[in-house]
Amino acid sequence: MKQNCMDQLPLRVLVVEDSIELQTMLQAMLCEIPSVQVIASVESEEAALATIRNECADLAIVDLELESGTGLGVLKNLQQSLEMNPHPVNIVVFSNYSNLVIRHRCLSLGAKAFFDKSFQIDELLEFVQAQASGKAKGLSA
């Protein structure tokens, strides 16, 4: 039975990252943010799409290079199925591939933000905290 995704607190976050070490680090940091629940960490495009659809994720933090598939594939698939998803998920990209062309492509495919792994982890965490605060106040995430 599919659960009702509306008005669920806390902010349900999915980590899509092929590095187990980075998954662990991100989970630990995200768990320190009030009103954030990491619902899963996955390494592939297929697992990301299944988890987003089945677990009512509010926010997905997506790397571009995955164990199988890509972060761009996640964005493309979600953009194509937008009208069929009753609970839209916000996607942010967290990647080392941060040239302007890649950033623009991600944003044009619906990513809400793009953060460079090399130096923007604090900005990523601030973004997640703002999303969680908005959801806790009943605003759209």
- Quickly name the level 1 CATH class: Alpha Beta
Order of helices and strands: EHEHEHEHEH
CATH superfamily: Response regulator
- Please give the number of β-strands: 5
CATH fold-level label? Rossmann fold
Q: How many domains?
A: 1
- Put simply, the count of helices is 5
Q: What topology, given as strand order, has the largest sheet?
A: 2-1-3-4-5
Topology at a glance:
Elements: E1 11-16, H1 20-31, E2 36-42, H2 45-54, E3 59-62, H3 71-80, E4 90-95, H4 100-108, E5 113-116, H5 121-136
Parallel strand pairs: 1-2, 1-3, 3-4, 4-5
Helix pairs in contact: 2-3
Features:
141 residues; alpha/beta
Explain how this protein is built:
The protein has a single domain (15-136), classed as 3-Layer(aba) Sandwich (Rossmann fold). With 141 residues, the chain is of the alpha/beta class. The chain is globular. It has helices spanning 20-31, 45-54, 71-80, 100-108, 121-136; strands at 11-16, 36-42, 59-62, 90-95, 113-116. The protein has a 5-stranded parallel beta sheet, with helices on both faces. α2 crosses α3 (71-80). The chain has 5 helices and 5 strands, in the order βαβαβαβαβα. α4 links the parallel β4 and β5.
In short:
With 141 residues, the chain is α/β, with parallel strands linked by helices.
